[in-house]
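Can anyone check this?
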Amino acid sequence: MKKVLALLLSAFIAAAPLPGAAGASQTVTLEVKNMTCAACPITVKKAINRVPGVVSATVDYESRTAVVTFDPSKTSIEAITKATADAGYPSSLKR
């Protein structure tokens, strides 16, 4: 029984977030221009996901937006918007 409890305790500790890791990622919504067809979000998403530090990206054609989660210690909003602009889709932080 003690071995089972020790195993469960070690699994719980291993799964716990590291100190300082809480809030380590940031999520922003970008307005994306020049999306003219339903295939455009694929290109935008690929451009965003190539930026080191991006955790996830969801691009929506209907609303012309991209919701991006990234690690601010590895990248910035400026780097992400530059990536979309370089792909032909200028973007800016949605306010």
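Reply from J.R.: I decoded it. The helical segments are 2-15, 40-49, 77-86.
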